[in-house]
């Protein structure tokens, strides 16, 4: 599990490092609606999905006797 986490983290680091070299990002105008929809998506994850995952994790831990 730690190896998977490390690989995913490394992937995100590489994405952030190499976005400087993506020339098409300079030419496409960034939309306010894109920012708003991204914020809504993040809020949905934190408000709706994470509490449900926590509930399911507690149920799984109870059944597995961890």
Task: Please give a quick description of this structure.
This protein has 66 residues and is mainly alpha-helical. It has 3 helices and no strands.
Shape: flat
Order of helices and strands: HHH
Helix residue percentage = over 70%
Class derived from helix and strand content: mainly alpha
Radius of gyration: 18 Å
The residue ranges in which pLDDT falls below 50 over 5 or more consecutive positions are none
Q: What percent strand? A: under 5%
Transmembrane segments: 6-25, 32-50
Keywords: Membrane, Transmembrane, Transmembrane helix
Question: Can you characterise this structure?
Answer:
With 66 residues, the chain is an all-alpha fold. It has one domain (2-64). Helix content is 82%, strand content 0%. The protein is built from three helices and no strands. The chain is flat. 0% of the residues are buried. The mean pLDDT is 83.
Core attributes:
membrane, single chain, 66 residues, transmembrane, 82% helix, transmembrane helix, flat, mainly alpha, 3 helices
Topology diagram in text:
Layout: H1 2-18, H2 24-27, H3 32-64
């Amino acid at each position: 599990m730690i190896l998977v986490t490390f690989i995913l983290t490394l992937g995100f680091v590489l994405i952030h490092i190499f976005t400087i070299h993506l020339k098409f990002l300079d030419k496409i105008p960034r939309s306010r609606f894109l920012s708003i929809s991204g914020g809504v998506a993040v809020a949905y994850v934190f408000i709706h999905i994470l509490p449900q995952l926590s509930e399911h994790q507690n149920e799984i831990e109870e059944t597995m006797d961890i």
